[in-house]
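How a chain folds remains the central question behind the approach discussed here. In the encoding step, the backbone of a single protein was reduced to a row of integers, each denoting a local shape. We regard such an encoding as a compact summary of how the chain folds. The sequence in question and its structure tokens are set out directly beneath this paragraph:

___
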Amino acid sequence: MLNNRSWTMLVLACAALLLPLSAPAYARSAPVTREQLLDRIQIEDMMTEYYSLLNGYSVHDVAEYFTENAVFIANGARIEGRAAIQNLYSSGGDPRVVEGNKYTMILSNPRISVRGATATMDCIWTGYLLENVYTAPRLVEQGTEHTEFTKRNGVWMITSRTITHLGGNPDVPARRD
């Protein structure tokens, strides 16, 4: 016959054996449907294209990726509206990037979650500068991004983009809230 202490030990031992069986359920995402998978691919392709516009010396039109009332936040500097976001990109580039060198922006580890006509993406971005063909590229900035999307007329658009520089922060000409 088991005493109270023995029963307690038996219950704790059983609980300890069952705990690892339930842990993966908390760490994993829900299964993805075919529609969600297609949406995730479209979002990742769109953001890869967006990041490719940030490469090089020239300024590009990024407004088409944002909704009319989108919000862009960089280390607390808040820019509201598609026109204001485009103005930020058109107001001048990073002073480290000059004609003749090559700047490459890389998007990595995207974690995209789709819920109907809305989605979010968390990722890491890294900027490399290649000053000439004789030296190795150097890392000039890196950070994280949280972006929210909406699907309108079958096209994914950015509603909110928050970037946080972890190193190599260039000045962002915008007001702080």
Q: What stands out?
A: Confidence is low (pLDDT under 50) at residues 172-177. The chain has one domain: 29-167. Residues 1 and 60 are 79 Å apart (CA to CA). The first helix runs from residue 4 to 27.
